[in-house]
Design a protein that fits this description.
This protein starts with a strand and ends in a 16-residue tail after the last helix. A hairpin with a 2-residue loop joins strand 1 and strand 2 (about 5). About 70% of the residues lie in helices and about 0% in strands. It has a domain at about 1-190 and about 200-220: Cytochrome C Oxidase, Chain A (Up-down Bundle). With about 500 residues, it is an all-alpha fold. Helix 9 runs antiparallel to helix 12 (about 320-340). It binds protoporphyrin IX containing FE (2 copies). One protoporphyrin IX containing FE binds next to helix 1, helix 2, helix 14 and helix 16. One protoporphyrin IX containing FE binds near residues 127 and 341.
């Protein structure tokens, strides 16, 4: 196990989740590109019968990328980072290793079942919580296994101090457990079908009306917080200092931002329900907390950018630093844009428009996907003990994907604000100036541009897949592990 002072880490689980990240990333993003083209050219919705319709494919995209791609990335990095910062190896405990293996196997089966059931049209119809009750039960089992593995590893650690990244992984575990349980309280319909034909899979929510909406958006917003934000911050706190060889700029700032984020995020979900039947004070609280949220969000991002102080030259030489720094910057962009959209008067224009998916994708592509890609690139030479296959391919991927993201969010900003302004335009008699179809016609070029941007991003993802595959199979073998900057081929 221990070779002198060095610990031999076990990367088998991290490698398995890396494979899942790439596989589900390809599926989820390919479906994303298809639905983006369908919005621009609606006749594409009719090519594969009911299975090819936008309504079936959209939840497949959102679940595929959030719970397939992103969660796999979170698990892959946890089983890598966890061992290293806790100074323990999975080889040391057969029990934890088998729990972690079961965690992977059940998780993989769950995502495959999710793909099949969503395509078949089974859905609870709550956004990001579409999976039906039998799958929800499986989610709970998987989450418990993740928790046992995580706290088991923490229990076996040799390093007393819990590094910042570990706090953020713990936050992800605890918060998702609470949110998922409450939002997915549902009653299977077969229990009270009284002999009437009823699908075994269907269920109805335990909440009704406004309460249902409140619980749903408390969950929905915090899925953003604890899937798309805290574990991704965990990644940047580990991988940016490691790859750049720099110390984290300020430990104090990291503590302040961590607790700030924990306290504020949970109150901000009301911004999804502005101008709805939710009590006015809750809407105002949601708006206010959203604006306050700029502080802890920017606290982490600025801490990361200042970590690069004096070392900005690395941007020219190391493409992984480009990914990491741009990810921080996109995090800053989406966490200033979100609070602006949460201001009531702005939300009156933004809500229901394409500006919202624009905001979503500058966050998920620029921040979440870039962080996962950079993290896996950093892990690859250490896990496979081989040099990264091609640096020039990483450079090309970076620029292609960056242009793709810019196409995506700029087109949606213009489309969204155009839509918002056209919907509310009225003439001197108080009649609406535009019909709905007028807005659809105006938006066509922007939808096309978004789809092209998505295609560029997906192409970059295929380059990433190829580079990872070549690294694992034929990158130059390394005789010792690199301390920081990842070694790369030409
Ligand atoms: C300070 C932080 C943030 C605030 C205050 C914020 C605020 C908002 C607001 C006001 C909306 C629109 C609600 C509506 O009118 O429908 C929204 C939607 C959304 N945001 Fe953010 N946002 C923040 C950060 C982020 C980040 C970093 C991401 C992803 C990485 C993200 C992902 C989303 C998603 C997925 C939705 C769409 C939810 C839906 O309607 O399905 N947000 N956000
Ligand atoms: C190739 C890249 C991608 C493309 C082309 C794409 C495209 C799309 C499209 C067309 C929609 C539907 C928008 C609508 O209903 O108006 C959507 C929704 C969404 N996508 Fe993506 N997507 C991509 C990657 C991702 C990734 C990597 C993530 C997360 C990690 C993600 C998360 C989401 C979310 C959360 C929504 C729901 C947004 C909302 O309700 O406002 N997407 N995407």
């Amino acid at each position: 196990m221990q070779n002198g002072a060095r610990i031999e880490y076990d990367y088998s689980i991290a490698k398995a989740f890396t494979f899942a990240t790439i596989l589900f990333g390809i599926i989820g993003m390919t479906v994303g590109v298809i639905i983006a083209f369908q919005l621009a050219f609606p006749s594409l919705s009719n090519l594969a019968g009911e299975y090819g319709t936008f309504s079936r494919l959209r939840p497949l995209h959102t679940n595929g990328v959030a719970f397939g791609f992103t969660l796999s990335g979170i698990f892959a990095t946890w089983y890598y980072v966890g061992q290293r910062v806790l100074k323990m190896s999975l080889k040391e405990s057969k029990f934890i290793k088998s729990i972690a293996t079961l965690h992977f196997v059940l998780y993989f089966i769950l995502i495959l079942l999710a793909v099949v059931t969503l395509l078949m049209g089974y859905t609870s119809s709550k956004e990001y919580a579409e999976l039906e009750w039998p799958l929800d039960v499986l989610v709970v089992v998987i989450w418990v296994l993740f928790g046992i593995a995580m706290f088991g590893m923490i229990g076996l650690r040799r390093e007393r101090t819990l590094y910042i990244s570990v706090w953020y992984y713990i936050a992800c575990f605890v918060a998702i457990a609470m949110l998922y349980l409450f939002n997915n309280m549902e009653v299977p319909t077969f229990l009270f079908a009284n002999g009437a034909p009823s699908s075994f899979m269907n269920s109805i929510s335990a909440y009704a009306g406004t309460n249902d909406a409140l619980v749903q958006w408390w969950y929905g917003h915090n899925a953003v917080a604890f899937v798309f934000t805290t574990p991704i911050i965990a990644m940047i706190y580990y991988f940016l200092p490691k790859e750049s060889g720099q110390n984290v700029y300020s430990y104090k700032l990291s503590i302040l931002s961590f607790w700030g984020l924990m306290f504020v995020y949970l109150w901000a979900g009301g911004h999804h329900l502005l101008y709805s039947t939710v009590p006015d004070w809750m809407q105002t609280m949601g708006s206010t907390m959203s604006v306050v949220l700029i502080l802890p969000s920017w606290g982490s991002a600025i801490n990361m950018l200042l970590t690069m102080k004096g070392e900005w030259g690395q941007l020219q030489t190391n493409p992984l630093i480009k990914f990491l720094v741009l990810a921080s910057t996109f995090y800053m962009l989406s966490t200033i844009e979100g609070p602006i959209q949460a201001i009531k008067s702005v939300n009156a224009i933004a809500h229901f428009t394409d500006w919202i998916p624009g905001h979503v994708h500058d966050g998920v592509l620029g921040w979440v996907a870039f962080m996962i890609i950079a993290s896996l690139f950093h892990m690859a030479p250490r896990m496979y003990k081989r040099e990264l296959y091609s640096k020039s391919l990483i450079e090309t991927q970076f620029w292609l994907q960056t242009v793709g993201i810019v196409f995506y969010f700029t087109s949606m900003w213009i489309a969204g604000i155009t839509q918002g302004m056209m919907w509310r335009a009225y003439d001197q008699y108080g009649s609406l100036v535009y019909s709905f179809i007028d807005t659809v016609e105006v938006l066509h070029p922007y939808y096309t541009l978004r789809a092209v941007g998505g295609l560029l991003f997906l192409t970059g993802f295929f380059m990433f897949t190829y580079n990872m595959y070549k690294t694992a199979t034929c990158g130059r073998v390394l005789d010792k592990e690199p301390a920081n900057a990842s070694p790369m081929g030409a």
